[in-house]
Every structure is written in structure tokens, then in C-alpha cells.
Amino acid sequence: MAGETVGEAIIQKVHKELMDFQGQLKSYQFKILNENVEISERLSANRADIVSLSSGKKQYDERLVRFKEIIEQALFNKYKTKIAVDILADLLDIKDESWRLAIEAYLGNQRYYLIVDPKYVDDAIRIYDRVKDDLPYYDYGIVDTEKVIANAKAPLANSLSEELTCRNQGAKTYINMHLGTLIKCHDIGKLRSNPRSITKDGMIYQNYVARRLNVNRVIPCIGSGSTKEQLRQKNLEIKELEARLQEVNNQVKYLGKLTSLEILNSNEIRTMVKVLNDTKDLPSLIKEADGTREIVESMSTNYLDTLEKNIQKVTKEIADLESEQLELNNEIVRGHAQIERYLKEELPSQKAQVNELKERINQSFDKTWIQTLGEPAFLDILQNNCNPETLFETLTTEIASILKTL
């Protein structure tokens, strides 16, 4: 930019970078505020879940609950009687809690499959097909209990199905079909001893592949004991959310202070540039000051004494003149007072005397005599008596002699 100094260019660059940084801070602040709202909402939901779980009610996805209600209502509408539609997890109980995570992780979404009486399976599937486009639920299904029971097989000894009790024949047969050949293994070294086997911590071997189930993401829902585990998980999640919420609140406060800071404006930039420019002249100013100090130090003491005496003399003369000026001012004030007294007191009296004399002269002398003899004689006296005192005495004598003749 033309006329722009190097210092100003640098400050302008810093100013731009600060503005960009402030924009980034505000963007991050917006993100943190959204997280604050999300955490608060999750905390509220979890606390409501805890109240529900404490009363013994399990927590299921609202979509699953809605899916179950649709099937129940449609069956009722057709048969005019309530037909049992159950979630598989509600029909099971786990004997040994140490196997819970392995069982829940292995079954996964199968725990949410719906179980209906075999004679209503076909109706339930048709209802599902009819509403599938309105309810895009891909994780839920309906167990064909009729076919499952017809093809039932006894579970193997020491299979994982032994750890489950079932209150429904269709549910029990379905579990035996999936867990009846999955052998419990207590030693990782024996995991490959059976075609299908599983450990308590979720290591599974089947189809010649060993892998680990993600037991950490399991939300327990099988049996009555699942509510206790869900309560434990919910309380743990609440603690984690509260800790995170505290961190987020601290960040919100800190970001609020940062984003409220004022960035340098144009006037402040000009001031900084001026300071920078002034500092460029600093070396020459220091050099000039050093030169002045050398001159002062080189002056003799006698010169400084003489200079001091002259200063004192001039100071005294100024004081004398100020004293004389004060006296003159006082004289002027007194003169003004005398003039004012003369104008107010003596002049009116003298005017009255003159007017009286003029009246007596006009009464005593003829107007022709005054114009031909009196006034010429008066003017002659004025010309011959320039001294005011002499004029006053002459006039007084003349006036007295005139008054005697009257």
C-alpha cells in the first residue's frame, strides 16, 4: 500500500491475524455451546430413565415399542381379542450374571425380535409387510415360532443356552437353535476344541474364525436383572456427562472472555505506528540532549553567578514597576472619585449660580446693552486673562461692581 510504513504493515498483518483468530474462536464457541445443550438434554433423558428403571421398567428404543404396538393393535383389530406380542429379551432370564455380557453381545439385535403364538405368525408377518414402508425399521424382526418349534433340536451339553431360562416355548426353542451348539469355554487355550465356542469376556470361535464381541457397547435388556445393570450404566454415564458438562461450562466461560476482547481499531493502530516512528528519532534526541549537557557543563561558575545576579536585578525592577503601576492605579481611582463628586455636587451648584446671574442680568439690563456693551466687554476680559485664577478674580470684581449698581 502506497505511503504505508513497514511498522504499519506489520501491525496491520497482526490485526488481520487476530481478527481471523477471533472468528475461529467464535466458531469453536458455537460448537461448544451446542455440545452444552446436547449434554444437558442427555442428562435430563438419563435422569428420567433412572426414575423409570428404578420402578422396574426396562428402557427400549421408542421405535421398537411402536413396532410392537402396531402388531398388537392389528391382531386385536382382526381377532377382537388381545394377542400376546412379546420382546424376546422379556421372555428370558440369565442364571449366571458372569455370562451376561457374552450372551447379550452375541444375541445383539436378536434380543429385540418379537415372539407371537405360532398360529399368528403369518398374520404378524403380513402386518409387518403392510406397514414396512411407513416404518423403516431394519433392526427388528418377527420370529417364525411355528417353524422353529417344528425343527427344534436338543441343545448340546455345556452350551451357552444352559445359562438362560425361558418362559415361552417358542423363545426357548429359538435360543436353543442359536446357543445350543455354542459351547462355553473357560480356557482360551481350548477355544478351538469345539466347532463353536465362547468365553465369558466375549471371545468367540465359529466357522473357523476367532474374534471378540464388543461387550463394552452392550446395553443389557435380558431378564429382570438387566434393570440393575442398566441403572449402573446410566449412573456411570451421568457421572461422565456431568464431568464433561463441567469442562464444557469452563470452556464456555473462557471462550466468552476471549471473544469479548476488543481487537485493535484503526486509531490504536495509528497510535502504535506513531510510537514506532517516534522511537526512530530517539537516538538523535539522545545525542542532542548529550550535546546540551556538555554545553551546560562547560559554562564557568562566574558566568552562571553573573547570570543569576542579572536575573535578580531584572526581577527587582519588575517588582518596582509593578509597585508604581499599583500606585498609578490608585491615583486614577482617586481622580475618578473626585470627578464623580464634582459632577454630582459642585457642578450642579455652579450651574445654578450661573443661571441665577443670567436671569438677574436679563432682568437688570437691556438686551441691546448686553449685546453691544456687556458681551464684548466679557470677551475682552477672557482674552486678557488666560490664567484661570486671575480670570476668576476679575470676573468676581466686575460682577460685584455691577451688582452694586443694581
Helix content: 55-70%
Number of helices: 11
What does the overall shape look like? elongated
- Indicate the low-confidence ranges by residue numbers: none
Q: From the helix content, strand content and strand pairing, which structural class follows?
A: mainly alpha
What separation lies between the terminal Cα atoms?
Answer: 109 Å
Q: Quote the beta fraction.
A: 5-15%
Order of helices and strands: HHEEHEHHEHEEEEHHHHH
**What's the gyration radius in Å?**
61 Å
Largest sheet data: 4 strands, mixed
Q: Going across the major beta sheet, what is the strand order? A: 5-6-7-8
User: Count the strands?
Assistant: 8
Mean pLDDT over the residues: 82
Report what the structure shows:
There is one protein chain. This protein has 406 residues and is mainly alpha-helical. It contains eleven helices and eight strands. A four-stranded mixed beta sheet has the order 5-6-7-8, with no helix packed on it. A hairpin with a 4-residue loop joins strand 6 and strand 7. The longest helix has 64 residues. It is elongated and about 180 Å long. The model has no long low-confidence stretch (mean pLDDT 82).
Characterize this entry briefly.
This protein has 406 residues and is mainly alpha-helical. It has 11 helices and 8 strands.
List keywords for this structure.
single chain, 406 residues, mainly alpha, four-stranded mixed β-sheet, two-stranded antiparallel sheet, 8 strands, 67% helix
